[in-house]
Amino acid sequence: MVSVLRVCSRPLCCSCNGYINQQCYASCLSSIVSTYDKYLSTCCSSKFNDNVVQNFTQIQLNTVTRRPPPNTSHFSECFHVSFYSSHAKNTTPRRYLKKGPSKNLRAISKSTFNQAQFQNAISQLPHRFTPEDLYKVITLQDDPQVCLEIFNWASQQPRFRHDVSTYHITIKKLGSAKFFQEMDDVVNQVLAVPSCGSEALFNTIIYFFTEARKLSRAINVYKYMRRSKDSSCKPSVRTYNILFAALLGRGSNTYINYMYMDTISCLFKQMVNDGIEPDIFSLNFMIKGYAQSLHVNDALRVFHQMGVVYNCLPNSHTYNYLIHGLCVQGRTVNAKELYEEMKNKGFVPSSKAYNSLVNCFAINGEIEEAEKILWEVAEKRVVIDFITYQTVLNEICRQGMIGKAMLLLNELQEKDLVDGHAYRKLLCGVEDEFRISNCRN
């Protein structure tokens, strides 16, 4: 078997280094056939069946283009003969992809901490330290892992019990560093002690749970506060504001806001029924939620109740939320009334409110009113987005005033309200509208 392989590996034509041209094709082909016959006979004598032989070796005649040898320059095509095994090792180079650290490595790096800093911190504590002493030491630490180790070490000391201050500072350190799993373990210790807790501590826990997107855990802590018999642990208006902000921050989609608005309404009713007076933040959260979920009439109802029922005056955010919600529904008359009332009270609309007003008037075909507000915005140097300019120009073109659209666009460029890139894109839009109008005519 070895001798046959050596015969097969010998060059078949020494004059062309393994490549057969047309002159020596016949002689080389006969040599190929004889060599292959010898190989088959040897394999058969070695009790290999035909399938194994066929799978083990093959002959491939490939027509390749190669520079001819010196003595065969008049031929441009040569025939390459090669023997190869179908079980040959795959020589395709492996691709080594750069991988990030595995979960185990991340866990190890997260669990490591500065041992020297830990020893230095506990050495500052007296022999019989109090929770106040521990609070001061943990406050001075920058490494959250060291804070956690100090907290756990103190828990194992005899005659020591954590109080609200040590729980609070530890949860703050872990939550700020996004050590949410470790923070959750400390929170479970707090909830396991009935007489331990405060309104500020539970508000911090709820806040960091909402930051960790553990909304169900935040709601459970809120329910724990309501069930508590200690008046200092009851929910406050700040507790509800944290929950309102978390629920409204779940997404900017109208459908998502619509789904969460029922929960926000129930929480608001519970707050009022418990005798907690809502502040400007609570009322603005309600108006914002109703406006974003397209319940604009409910938002207006809360707006009119602010000064009468809740003894709280609206601010600029209140008007901005209402103007945006009214413009989304195309209620330009109500939006303009609130806009004038807002200006009379000395409030300045936000960029979002201005863009909503200009877009709403332009879409409804009120070009003059849209241009009037547009120039008011330009005087106050409030940012107007590209879509607003495009909407106004497109509506002017649809009304057949192509020349007016070009004058407005040139005036915007002269006053540096649009840059060169935006000007070219807006100009292309005006030209497209001009071609469409010509085709219609």
TrEMBL record:
Going by the entry's taxonomy, the superkingdom of the source organism is recorded as Eukaryota
Q: Keywords assigned by UniProt?
A: Repeat
PPR repeats span which residues? 315-349, 350-384, 385-419
Q: Which InterPro entries does the record associate with it?
A: PPR_rpt, TPR-like_helical_dom_sf
**GO MF annotation terms:** mRNA binding
Record's Pfam families? PPR, PPR_2
The similarity annotation says:
Belongs to the PPR family. P subfamily.
Q: Which NCBIfam families match?
A: PPR
Q: By what name is this protein known? A: Pentatricopeptide repeat-containing protein At2g27800, mitochondrial-like isoform X1
Native species: Nelumbo nucifera (Sacred lotus)
> Gene encoding it?
LOC104608085
